[in-house]
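Curious: can you check?
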Amino acid sequence: MIVLPVIPDLIAPYSPYVIDSAQRGSPPSAAHLFGMDQVGRDVLSRVIYGARLAMLVGLSATSLSLVVGVFVGATAGYFGGGIDAVLMRLVDALQAFPILILLIAIAAALGPSLAHVIVILGLTTWAQYARVVRGDVLSLRQREFVVAARTIGVPNRRIIIRHILPNALGPIIVLASLSVAGVILLESALSFLGLGTQPPAPSWGSMLADGRTYILTYPHIALFPGLAITLTVLAFNLLGDGLRDALDPRTRI
């Protein structure tokens, strides 16, 4: 899944945009392992190039939400009081909305595009990071090394960045790896509804939407992008589970 987005030109057997109208809907064969779609494009090539878009959105949006969530959570947990109350009410308000409905509303208002999808996903999925980081910071800010740093006059920003956040990296890394899978699913849902990446860009969600109409006559058009989404989400979930086991001190002997 990491190699495919990096070198799709070397792996894909055909261009994802070239149309051969004579082979529209052709089933899988030796020449076209995943068959051809409804307009005559190679499904395997489009699935491979779709991996680049899925990873771009998944990693970019997750990075953006990670930065925002860590900043909000660390600020709320470290300073507490009124700042904590205001920021946590903001988190509660964000989590009160069904995430997909919120994404659809914002995407419809801003218009469909790849940049909009990344920004929308990044700015609507950070609440989970904020809660996890806040809980860790609330515990860490009372530790002796933090109290000692305050006593000698170390600035708050340096204490948070150099002393507190490194000790909270384990849960953050695990949550980020799990979140990539969720972001890929949300991007596929938006593209499926026509609010994400627009054709002819090879997005797994839009490929599913195209194949829905032909599911009884040409099932392979929807089958293979659906399998790609399933395997990618499963891979990141397994990665997250593995990192959790590796970074959780309670599982170490």
In short: The two ends are 32 Å apart (CA to CA). The chain has one domain: 44-251. The domain at 44-251 is CATH 1.10.3720.10 (MetI-like fold). The mean pLDDT is 88.
